[in-house]
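User: Fold both of these, please.

Assistant: Here is the first one.
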Amino acid sequence: MAPAWSSSAKDIVGTALGSGRVWFTLGYGILDEVYWPSCSLPQIRDLGFIVAGEDFWCEVKREHRYQLSTPDAEVPLPKVVHEHERYKLEFEVLADPLRDVVLIRYRLHGDGLRLYALLAPHLGGSGHDNSALVHAHGLAALKQDNALMLVADQGFARGSAGYVGASDGWQDFQQHNAMTWTYACASNGNVALLGELNALHGVLALSFADTLEGAQTLARASLAQGYESARVGFVEGWRHWSRALRCDLKDPVLKQAVRRSAMVLKVHDDRRYPGALIASLSIPWGNTRDDPGGYHLVWSRDAVEAGFAMLACAHHEESRALLSYLIATQQDDGRWAQNFYTDGRPYWTGVQLDEAALPVLLAAKLDEMGLLDGQRAAATAMARRALRFVARTGPVSPQDRWEENPGINPFTLAAAIAALVAGAAHGFLDAADARYALLLADDWNARIESWVYVQDTELDRAHGTHGHYVRIAPPGQDAQHSEVALKNRGRVVVAARDLLGLEYLYLVRLGLRDAADARIVDTTRLVDALLRVQTPSGAFYRRYNEDGYGEHGDGRAFDGTGVGRAWPLLTGERGQFAVQAGEDARPYLDAMLASASEGGMLPEQIWDSEPIPARGLYPGRPTGSAMPLVWAHAEFIKLATVMQHKLPIEQLAEVVARYAAPRVAAVQLWRPQAPGAQLDAARPVLIEGDAPFVLHIGHDGWQGVRDVPSAPTGLGMHGVHLDGAALATARSLEFTRRFLDGRDWEGRDWRLQMGAPA
């Protein structure tokens, strides 16, 4: 069979806070993917159990009758109890704090039974080209520089290695109702191992190393030291870490949930590369594909969202380590790769402007809280590079935050504007760059509505609103009259004015617009009417109308197209806005909690249609997308804390102060990617370029033509200033640019109308 991963529906995830470098996940009551030596690299698909007697056998994960518990919310030490008419199987899973080993202490209750361990190696992050063998000391697998060993303290009676779907142990039981095969090895394929345990209780050690001998040594050493010793170290490590966590909530349920969410964020932090926060220890719809990336990669956006959540609950060092990591992984041009492995190697190749702006906001927040300390010099250099990229690229982003469409969107725009102001206010920029950054921020802020706000549309007339913010406006086009091609719907075209999202809420969260602004209120009314989904778990929100990222209507996995489902993290965003608007936000927190897995993991999406029991899909419960999602847990923490402190953790005082009242930009900036065909004749204009150029310009049909050389303006940009007096009598400007960096003439004439102040 072609290899695939296990389901992304995780019960719980865990790791030890020591020198050991393994991360484990549980799903359907068994051990799923285990990651080593970083949280970017899964090494097995799963490790489960078969229970057999004289007249029956079953694979415990398929029974799906189990309970899961942990000692405390912040200690990811899962105990799983599977109940069956013929048996009770209980086991506990932990990572050895000292070694690259996962330990499982198990006990099977029942008469006349045998217990079998069923292991599917996916070494090196793929199920292809693995080799499995029955070893004198246990079950083993190899692939290039990756090796694993499964050792039992009471030993195995026998073992077998086979190819999945043909000669593996599950097929043996399926065909013969017993273990009859004892193949010594299976090489270079999608393989699985089966081992009959000598005892019905004991300890299993699953170890990883770059050689088989190393894996064997680690497993046997861990067993020799003893399970209880590892358990004490594991629990104490987590309890010590959690003592620094600040959570002032009085409600014990919420307090426990915040502590659990903080634990989830910490679990997703790498130890080879401290500060590398991956998006999820899961592969969306993993049981249908052999995706080498999944979500076990770093997105700077998701990581910064988690960094702010850590600040919200006073885990400052995690946020500082994240900032250092982001400084180290910044690209030479100032941006970050769309996503990347924990060692910094890029994976996908898209460019997202918000991912360049958000690290600057994190650095500024650390500075505002007095936590930047010795990082200032490196953070300053990072911010300068990032803001040069923002200034050169914006306001258009090649991809939005959902990694689908190019254009101008409110979320990215808000992050970019706030980052420009923060860079100037926190001393990250020199005087000339700071002046220009504020000019640029003020201009973009003043033009937000001209780019992403529409009025008197069919939607508005149908719902009694005057206008609304759109999800995105395509590059160089206005939102009122343009169209957007939906990437996950086979490029179905939708009018931009009809496409809603929750991106606009960041205008309020970051302090650019007031929650009571009529435009914000109207958009919220539309969003609640069109994107809100009521489920037995509570209210959730879809990313945008016409979204296609989710299971198909019949429950089949997303395969490039599908039906967009509702997201708990968006419930968190809507809840934060509720706090800022003076509403009751508790229902949003309760909904997020109700969507969680057995172990408290928050999913990326929940099912929002009629139940499909055969596929495990129920309204208000997780779908096959990622779970847990770090961003969702971060939103939960931030929502819980903002309910108490009222101010979003991402908000910066300088940004709020600058835009507390409507602000007219002193200078109008023009660049091709910033749409706008009319200028205010009463204010100066700055014609911009990303390199030195000569402006060939005339007015009113190319009258009074002249050539004007550009001058540096700041952040690597160049421009020509046209003052108000020279513009006052012109009805239009016509111009083109000749770049001096080898591009020569740009090959297009531009025409701008001069009008009265907007």
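And the second sequence with its predicted structure:
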Amino acid sequence: MKTADTADEFLACAADFQLGQLDTEQPHPLTQNLSAQCKDDLPAAVAALKAVDQQALATMAERLAPATDLVRDIHATWANGGRIFLAGCGATGRLSIALETFCREGLVPEALQDKVIGFMAGGDAALIRSIEGFEDFPSYGERQLRELGFGAQDLLIASTEGGETPWVIGAAEEAARISERAPWFCYCNPDELLCQLVERSRRVIENDGIRKWNLAVGPMGIAGSTRMQSSTVLQYGVGLALELAAKEDFASQSIADRLAQFAQTVDALDWNFLAEFIARETEIYQQGDRTLYVTEDFGVTVLTDTTERSPTFSLPVFENYTAGQTNEPLSLTYLTIASQPSVTLAWRQLLRRDPRCLTWPDELPVTRHERLMGYDIGARAAHNRALSCGEARHHVFDIDRVDGAIIWSLGKLAAQPIPVGLPLLDAQTLLKMLLNAHSTLVMGCIGRYEGNLMTYVKPSNNKLIDRAIRYIQTLQRKANGECAEYATICRELYHQRATLAPDEPIVLKTLAALKQP
């Protein structure tokens, strides 16, 4: 298919994906100068992202009304022998799988740990890399739910930061058809905007057979980067509902009290230690070296942050060693659970279960089990990276538990950023927040966004294609006071995407091409 034909195909359905008015797509006023702060004043950049997280938790506290019903529904499902299914796409898919892992680590009693099933668009293989275009198909969400054996007594909790992801909506609507228990749809944009802009979202929000929890907490620290504040509040909210529902005296517990305690922990924590780690990791990449994150107890949280850097900032994904030594572009960072001698055991430790990959015949081979096993995060990861790096070095970034404390170390740097004795969910969510801030600011230091706009966004699905077009329009208006027509930019973006080098920013490349006479 010619490039022009592909662009026209997108333009024919673009109205369904023009989401620029949604809160999650807006630039946050506290971070409008973030890229400059990364280069000139790292402590100020750290403080800005902490402030955005604090704002998100404060807003979350105002949106807890549905939480009591969610806790009751989870408790009743378990009491009647049903299971809780957690579903999402991209960042919400990773948080769904993370919450299952936390349950297996003690968030809920052992008797309930097999009663929580987290899954994401594309299956477990999508933990590493986004499955291009997968989230655009509601039928894929329906199919994955059915193949996992979802039944009449089971409860689905479907999360989508934007509230408009077709795959998640497909799964939620299918659950409403299958189960006697109304599914939950959790999201982070205002109802009125979603109903006005997105027909599929309006259909879900107005469906009395689907229960809703709106956790809209405003713009993200980086515009559109919902791996940050939106996924944080969704992870904490759904995770806390699971934790409390597992208690015999669940009705006496208060989500509001727990959230207030967590917010106090975040407020009291000094985030300034991040500046040294950000500066050092930036220096490593600028000198052509790489990092290897090492962890035993926090695999799923560290994996989530390191892999989400790729789609957010157009970085090479983790290299795959399915056929032995790889010729794929070397990712800036990789993960290892060094105590595990094999890739199979490493993935089992990370997930606290065997991986669940798709087995759809002749479709999407990147979703299959053998593909996931090519991401060797076991003891051989350091050896593989050493061979792949050539003359470059890989530097160990260790995040682990020592005597109850969570310790970070990178070369000569060391810090104990997370207080001892926090509940499991609080510690994991706080670690997620710190890692999100750390990696986002490292990316700012190496020039992967402008202000707080993702100029390196990878347009791998319809929502991200629209986002790239809007960012080009924003930058054109900033420079000239006016911008090109949407369709004109779209066609040029598709043209540039066809020849895009692995490390080129599609937004800036298209912007430059549009300036040519």
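The beta strands are 84-88, 116-120, 155-160, 184-187, 211-214, 290-294, 333-336, 394-402, 405-410, 413-418.
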